[in-house]
Amino acid sequence: MATAENKKIIKWMAYGALAGLGAALCQKQTRTSAVHCARTNFQQVKSLVKDPGTLVQKTSARLRQIEQQVHNVAEDLESINDRIEQMKNSTQKRVSTNQASHQSHS
Q1: 63 and 23 within one domain
Q2: What would the pLDDT profile of 30-54 be if each residue is shown by its tens digit?
Q3: pTM value?
């Protein structure tokens, strides 16, 4: 029984979606935009079907860029960490020097 009810709900959801699409497409600007997007996407799919190697090349190039960016960020973080350690050591030396100075004057 639940399956029949689910089918009815899905059926009416589809009707609602189609009605919404129809209402949206009544506006010329929306209709023009939808046609333009459909044509653009069709051309992209068509070119990928003709030459799937292009997708592989573009994906590989993008992955190399991402790997380089991750490497750069890792180097930057390492540099920041080194600088923080230098600052900690410098602060500890100053504190030790100030304490020694106070003790010698006392």
Answers
A1: no
A2: 888 888 999 999 998 998 889 989 8
A3: 0.46
- Rounded mean pLDDT of the chain? 88
Cβ atoms 25, 34 nearer than 8 A:
yes
Looking at the 3D structure of the chain, how many domains does it have? 2
Quote the percentage of the chain above a pLDDT of 70: 93
User: Are the CB atoms for 13 and 20 separated by under 8 Å?
Assistant: no
Are 61 and 44 members of one domain? no
To which H or E segment does residue 24 belong?
A: helix 2-25
Regarding whether 46 and 19 lie in a shared domain, the answer is: yes
The answer to whether 83 and 77 have CB atoms below 8 angstroms apart is no
12 and 56 inside one domain:
no
Q: Give me the pLDDT at residue 106, please.
A: 59
> Both tokens of residue 55?
């997708």
